[in-house]
Structures are given as structure tokens and as C-alpha cells.
Predict the structure of Golgi to ER traffic protein 4.
Amino acid sequence: MSDKLARTIQRFQTKIDSGSFYEAHQTIRTITNRYVKAKQYTEARDLLYQGATILTKNKEYASASDLINYLIQVYDEEELKITDKDAKYKLIELISNLPNDDPLLNDLANASISWSQKSSVCEKFGDSDLHHLFGVKLLSLLENDADNNGVAARDAEQKSKLFAIAELHLVLGTFESVPIYVSYLAKTAQINKDIDPGVFLSRAVINYAYLKNIKFVKEAQTLFFEKIKGYVGKEGEVIKSVEYFENYPLLNFIQLLVQTIQKEPLTNGQKFLKLYDHYKLLLKQREILAPVEYLGKLYFNLNLGSGQGGNMLANLMGGLFK
């Protein structure tokens, strides 16, 4: 850090110490503007990083979030890419230190993911580490809300929307995202013991299958079964590594689906069709017929059903990242 920048930070810290948070925030913005106009991007980034860190420590989260958002804008103007490890991990650090209920968290998610997509290494979905970060924070917010039984608890529609966003981030996240996502699904299955657990496992399996991420599909299934063993009752009959449960036909289907999509298209297209025909009515009842038909197209080039519904993960992404 240059002497000039160090002096600026010291003046900023003095304003913070005196309780002049708004003035301190505006001072950082004003000086950053000058650096950006002069294309002194390193100084601008350092100032925003230090300013946001100090504001966060003083629980001035709204001002800190604003400076983090400005930092992303500077990354864009400087044409820094997500491959710049220092830029990426400083951003992750700053966002990690914000509270999970920060009202600007979704805005920061959209801005940072959009920035990461400008790099060729992750232009399709954005950076997986960033997705993991936002998925974990949003899911933690949802779980804390449930634990509080709260005064400010969200209604069912709000919880559904929050979970949909958290779920998308976790599905597009890292391998470390899988146990966090699956653990939540298993807990939800345990709460709803009158529902076939396959309803919950199907979310992870179908979402990861959309991405052709078989490694994550298999891990999700393994972890889910480890977590539900205690409450599914009597173990089912195991045939060729599939555990059949008399009372959970959808759970049976999902296991068979996982096996089928791992095989070569030429040999397993017919197996998929038989599986689809046998469980079609059940899939329709559980409202996952269209996603399964999409997987038939994706993996085996099968044209099933009306073609309506399609890739719901892609549809959801289109609605969130604009």
C-alpha cells in the first residue's frame, strides 16, 4: 500500500472512530471515483477493499455492500477476469463477512456472477466458488429462519423463492456444495415422512443430471441414502445395487434413473424408455414428468411427451441472471 493510500485509510478510520459512518463512506466513494477516472485501478481496488473491510467490522453493512458492488464495477472497467486469484478471493472474503440476510446479497450475487461469466473459463454458468458462497449463505438464512420459529419468519412463498435461488447456486457450485444441498433435502424429507423421499432426492439428481455432472449425481444419491437410513423403515430388497422399497416407488425410480444415465446411449436408450413407460403415471403425479422427458432427450436423443417444460434449471437461470 502506498503512503498516500495509507494516509487516506487513516483519515477514513478516524471518521469511523468518531461515528461519522456516512461521511466516511462518501469519502471513500469520492476518492475512488478520482482513481477510476485516472485509471489508477490498483489504488481504487485497494481503497474499496480496505474501506469495505473496516465498515463490515463496524457492522455498517449497507455501506460495506455498496463498496463491494463498486469493487465489482472496477473489476469490470479494468477488465480483470475471475482467473485473477487475488481479485476473486478478496471478493469472496468481503462477501463472506456480510450477514446472510444482507438485503443486497442477491444484487451482489448477480453482479459477481455476471463478472465471472466474462471469463472464457466459466462463461456459461459463472464461477462455481461464487455460486457455492451464495448458495451456502442463502440456505443458512433459510435454515436459521426455520430454527427461529420467528417473529420475522418468512411465509411459504418467500421460503420457496429463497430456496429456489439457494438451490440454483448450490447446483452450480463446487463438490463441497453437494453435501450442504443434500443435507437440506434429507432434513426436509425427514420432516415430511408421509412423502416418498424420492421427491426430495429427485431434485438433486435431476438438477445435476441436467448439467451432465454424473459425479455429483452419484455423490448426491450416496449422501442422501446415508442420511435417510434412520427413518425410511425396513431396508428394501437389494438387486444389482438398487435398494427397492415397497412404499417408496419414486425412490426406486431415481436409483434406476441414476444407473441408466451412466450407460452408453446406444445400449441404454431402450432401458430408459422401459423405465419411463413403467413409471410415467407416477412421474406425472409427482410433477417431474417433463424434466425426466428432457433427460431422455439430453442423454438418449429421445423425443418424449409434448416437449413442454424442458430444462427447468436453464429456465430458472434465465429468470435470475439478467
Remarks:
- The longest strand covers residues 237-239.
